[in-house]
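queue> holo job accepted (LXAUTJHC)
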Amino acid sequence: MTTDMRHAVVDVLEDADAVAMKMAELFIKVVKEKPAGKVRIALSGGSTPKKLFTILARPEIAGQVDWSRVELFYGDERYVPDGHADSNHASARELLLSKVSIPAGQVHPMPTETTAVEDAARYQTSLQKAYGADTLEAGRPLFDIVMLGLGTDGHTASLFPGEAVLDEKKAWVGVSAPKTAPHERLTLTYPAIASSALVVFLVTGENKVPMLARLRQGDGSIPSGRIVSEGKILILADRAAAGELS
Ligand SMILES: O=C1O[C@H](COP(=O)(O)O)[C@@H](O)[C@H](O)[C@H]1O
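queue> job finished
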């Protein structure tokens, strides 16, 4: 079964706090319900997941997760040094990873150390090691959850409009050079995102209304509209983003 955006399930929640709480509940559920093995989750970047990270770090919530079974990856990273204010990993580390008992070897930041092209290849190798194969297999998803955001230009992860990486069919990780700063990024490609049991978009705020409407229609002229998953796709949106407040 492959799901495209036109067949995504949409859940409209009251506000950004409710979206973050719903995602935290889903995170807990997926970890609890996977019968065996590691639970591989790709985190999204930008500002939207920050509320989720804060909730997951709360002792009463973190205590419901068996962190020894969780392996965290990233959907994209800004090509900035570790610790930079724009780094997606720095934000996750500050709000979540430094506060929960996840083994250090089970957190996989995208490297930003040599060149973007070399580091994309290195990250692909890390993913292949975690997956246990060099080729993605149907019915054995790389990720249990891929979390994604939605940019006001329709990008998701760092799949920006007009970028060559949108046409990547083979590599799991690619490079993009968007007009939006920081201008160099690493990103999971469509095939890597598609190798997922569940893709969840977190979309909040009034400024996302036009793009969320296009995402829900599966508008292939925006990068997010072309996302597919071999599992399910869920959109968690707040009422502001869904246009229910206007
Ligand atoms: O640059 C990025 O933008 C998108 C959306 O970010 P947000 O701040 O509007 O939540 C995000 O999903 C992506 O990971 C990030 O690198």
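queue> The chain has one domain: 14-221.
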